[in-house]
Design brief:
This protein is α/β, with parallel strands linked by helices and 295 residues long. It is 41% helix and 15% strand. β3, α2 and β4 form a beta-alpha-beta unit.
């Protein structure tokens, strides 16, 4: 009898150890530990940028539902919509019985996200704000999906491209930049945002880097800080007409330099691999003004 009890105890320890070995744990951007029993098979993404990162991490075929405007890569366009980033369809989300929900801390409704947690779902809360955080999110998503080889390769490529740009512009003369997100109200970017990181990567200096997230500013503040160039995004792939309104102030360096530039917002406002393309465009624009100032 003692022999059988000892044997059962040993078997129990082995089973528990095996189960523990198969579980996956990562720490999200809320410093919460998210633990899955195994690689995620049914994923819900609650932000377009997170959808992109999941695909890059090799988990695209595990996504069962996405937020509105999850339009990249093309495979994401046919996925079921479970609400907007700021208005979730809780019934649809619960109906998919996901084993992983990826949420956006500053974009998704906090009460709705907390409700999903309270219901017992595994919720990973993301808040990428820097260029390097994009690589980190890819690695964590790949770990949760069991697609580490794909995720690590993508993360490594991203880091290498960033370092190449950083090395190229590290010792370049600084150029003052005003980045305009919108015109009414007049919105820029502060120092703790992805776009600020891109500006600095390119050897630029964000004239509003002393402000917080998405600051509302005045025309007078822009005139006072007198940027050497202005870069705008707007809402879609078309250059916004309001960008040329700055020509009303010829005393601005940016107007004198004929340096009113545009970058499609998805290339610099989404935390995805496509930000490399946006960074290349921005670096080229900043460099063109830098070269003019040298003459």
């Amino acid at each position: 009898m003692q022999y059988w009890r000892a044997s059962l105890l040993i078997m129990s320890v082995i089973v528990c150890a095996a189960t523990s070995a198969q579980s996956i744990s990562v720490v999200d951007d809320e410093q919460r530990t998210v633990t899955l029993a195994g690689p995620a098979q049914r994923i819900i993404s609650l932000a377009p940028s997170l959808t992109e990162l999941l695909f890059v991490a090799g988990a695209g075929n595990r996504i069962k539902g996405v937020s509105e405007y999850s339009d990249h890569p093309p495979q994401a366009q046919g996925l079921p919509i479970v609400g907007r980033y700021d208005l979730l369809d809780m019934e649809a989300i619960v109906g998919f019985n996901p084993d992983l929900i990826v949420a956006w801390r500053s974009g998704n409704p906090q009460a709705a996200v907390q409700r999903l947690i309270d219901l017992g779902f595994n919720v990973y809360i993301a808040e990428p704000r820097t260029l390097l955080s994009i690589a980190e999110q890819i690695e964590k998503f790949a770990k949760l999906a069991g697609t580490q080889d794909t995720g690590e390769a993508a993360s490594r490529y991203f880091r290498e491209q960033l370092e190449a740009l950083r090395s190229r512009y590290r010792d370049s003369a600084r150029v003052s930049v005003f980045y305009q997100v919108w015109n009414e109200p007049l919105i820029s970017v502060g120092g703790d945002e992805l776009i600020n990181d891109i500006i600095e990567l390119c050897g630029g200096r964000n004239i509003f880097d002393d402000l917080g997230l998405a600051p509302k500013i005045s025309v007078e503040a822009v005139l006072e800080r007198d940027p050497a160039l202005i870069i705008a995004s707007g809402m879609d792939i078309a250059r916004p007409e309001w960008l040329d309104e700055w020509r009303r102030w010829p005393q601005l360096q940016a107007v004198a330099n004929d340096a009113l530039f545009f970058i499609p917002p998805d290339l610099v406002q989404r935390h995805s691999l496509r930000v490399l393309s946006g960074a290349l465009q921005m670096c080229s624009q900043i460099d063109s003004v830098r070269n003019t100032q040298r003459q």
